[in-house]
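Q: Sequence in, structure out?
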Amino acid sequence: MCGILGAIGKFSKPLFEKSLSRLAHRGPDGSEIWESPEHQVMLGHRRLAIIELSDLGKQPMTDLNLTITYNGEIYNYIEVRRELTAKGHSFRTNSDTEVILKAYQEWGAKCLNKLNGMWAFAIWDSTSKTLFISRDRFGVKPFFYSFTSTGFIFGSEMKALAPMLDQVSISPDFEWCKENIYNYEITEKCLIENIKRFPAGHHALLQFADKNLSPIRYWNTIDHLVEVETSYETQVERFRELFFDACKIRMRSDVKIGTALSGGLDSSSVAAAMHQLGKAQNAERSTQRDWQNAFVATFPETPLDEKIYAEEVVKSFSLNGYYFDIDPLKGLTVLQEYLWFFEELFLTSPIPMMEIYKRIKEQGVSVSMDGHGADELFSGYGTMLLNATKDDSFNIKSIRKIISTYKGAYGIDKSDFTVWIDGFAGRKNLLKHYFSKTFNFSEDDPLVKRLGHFNAALYKEFHFFILPTLLRNYDRYSMAAGVEVRMPFMDYKLVSYCFSLPWSSKLRNGYTKAVLRSAMENFLPEKIATRKSKTGFGTPFKQWLLGPWREYVLDTIQSLPFKNSQLMDAQKAIKTVQQFYKNPNPTWDDGNKVWEELMPYFWEISFFNKVK
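A: Exactly. Output:
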């Protein structure tokens, strides 16, 4: 896990060094630059040492005519290495980096199908004068690039590319991105003009003199669905097998690992799997021995506090539990620094998340096993699960069970009929759906045809909406502290299996995430396994704005820089803030709206004005 940078063309080395230094937080364990003999190619690397801690693991790494700079982890590198050794390849390091180089030598672009992990890398071939670029299947690791007047540049973050751009200016897509906060991550649109985002699940080959990039898709989950077992019990067994394997290979590490624990089902399941695997570790470095470290962020006297649930998990597995309050006043002192690291727009502040990974690093832990991705695989978001009523349209008993599950999980106090209509976004859509079913009209949406309404909705959340944005966010949150986040639920084999399961394996007996609960119920405390409530990890803006942030926010909206901001309607924002403080009983959403109005200004002063 690291920060990468590259340039092809006429770029000065001091400028390249300046750019690479902006990625120091991503790689606190070393900095290296490789330069081609003709001085027309530079590859840079900031190292976070996780596997092969010796200098043998340093990058950029060269083997024969290939040189790589790489950010990520290949979790199955041991298995791929064995296969390559059987084909006659020899290795001088124990690193996964060398495995990628040898795999590319052996299989070319098809090597990507062998890799199980997260990555963004570029391999320069000094013989063919080409650059091979790849990003992992789901875009866990970032890759930005730009063509300038003097050549081609790429890197892990926008701030690293900025010094080498012809000029740094706000993207003409800025307003679109602000209004489509969950949508722009899956596009090439970026907040800085002339910087583009390389797409997940793609690779590309760039010739030395090329002036454009043509990514080629190598992975599309819909093309990798599998046959699933007919009985629910057998599905549970298969899911458990895949999940434990995903956790096992992610416990491979030469440094201490831990977990960011909330007490929810997802993160607790990861902790439970680690506990079981830790008891059965073997000598092949298949699991890390120093893993019993759990980190819990607490929000006293706010709806976000889940400490009582996390404590259940810590006690059950005899973990080293580290608890710490998120201090809103301290958050103000680091807000601009954290937004510099974050460099994007989002609907909550990065303070709580960056604080937890900072505390993780302070305890000497460099890898965190987290539960991201499960909500989008199994329906952890509100009305999403009501899509299942469309898949069993004429089964009233089944529909009532789905509605009951929804109401129980989210505390909805409405009639079943009202909830049913809400799930179709109104009576008109409900009638349209039943009319089309009655007369056998085909669905327009190809995903619905393949997956059904429920899984199609989840598929879109996973690949095109919420999850890509969260993956981006957690890359920035964790790497700001030099911590690598590993996500077992993002294992591609597990993802393909879960999207192949019917909706009835995910919603069952009044519970969401049924197959996960069933697979882990014998390993989790009952209080966790049967927990229906969900608490998001964010910022309690309402409480912070009414309390410790009040003076700061009111001073901000009266400041001259705020009123002169080029990225926002200052008068509209001032009105929103004033209405919040005039309201005798503001809601949670009211607090969030204040942040949404102020966010572009904070981004402007914390990132844009400093990146130029």
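Residues 282-288 have pLDDT under 50 and may be disordered.
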